[in-house]
Amino acid sequence: MSGTGFSRSSSSMREGRVRRREALSAVWLARFESLPPVRKVRTYDGQRSVTRDYWSTTIRKALACESRLERDHAMLMDFDPQVEGLVSQPFRLFWPGRRGRLGHVPDFFARLADGTGVVVDVRPDDQIGPDDTQAFAATERACDLAGWSFRRVGVIDPVLLANVRWLRGYGHPRYWGQETAERLMEEFAEPKPLLAGAEAVGHRIAVLPVLYHLLWRGLLGTGLESRVLGLDCVVRRSRAEGGAW
To answer: What are the residues whose beta carbons fall under 8 Å from the beta carbon of 6, sequence distance 6 or more?
Structure first.
């Protein structure tokens, strides 16, 4: 991709936030997840989508999202224990086109536990136009060169979304209880129904919030795509593979 480049934000104690435009080969080792967004998400009259920040329990920061769907995907990445770093509007990619230089700002950049990077664009299948197709293709080619993965994601399974939204309500550290958590981890060493395991540890009112917090953190797991989470769902300790994203 001759002529491909990035515009990214960086911070300086003296200069404050600045933008830098560099060649792809000069920035693919950059820790984009630790840099500020390259642009702000702005609202405007007649806007069809709803903009709202998502507070990530993984990075303890707000992520600017341009739609409910982006916010839901931010939540799925927040839920995935393989995601250790996350930023929205990470950089602006430039590449040469027939009509001159073209550009695109992906929705997210995620850093995974194995050190690899993932660039994410959120767009439902029925909302992709020719310009979007070109932008996504250029972004995927740039990711291949940088050694990252590229994902274009769309509508989320409603059962999965409902379950993760429920667990997100227990994502705050205040739902952690060391002794209860340890006993739950022991109790669910072998798969068993959620309520049965919880009541074996203590009163459900005290135990269930900790159990849901462990499910959110991925220390306990259950099937989240097959059915809405209920008291008879089978829960097990740990997950071999991370996340719902």
So the answer is: 21, 22, 23, 24, 27, 91, 92, 93, 94
By residue range, what is the domain housing residue 201? 158-237
Domain CATH for 101: 3.40.1350.10
pTM equals: 0.86
- 178 and 141 part of one domain: no
What digits encode the pLDDT tens for the residues 13-62? 334 455 677 777 777 778 889 888 887 776 655 555 556 799 999 999 99
Q: If we measure between CA atoms, which residue out of 59, 71, 70, 51 comes closest to residue 35?
A: 59
Average pLDDT over residues 211-226: 95
Q: Which of 97, 126, 153 is the last residue of a domain?
A: 153
**Rounded CA separation 149/159 (Å):** 26
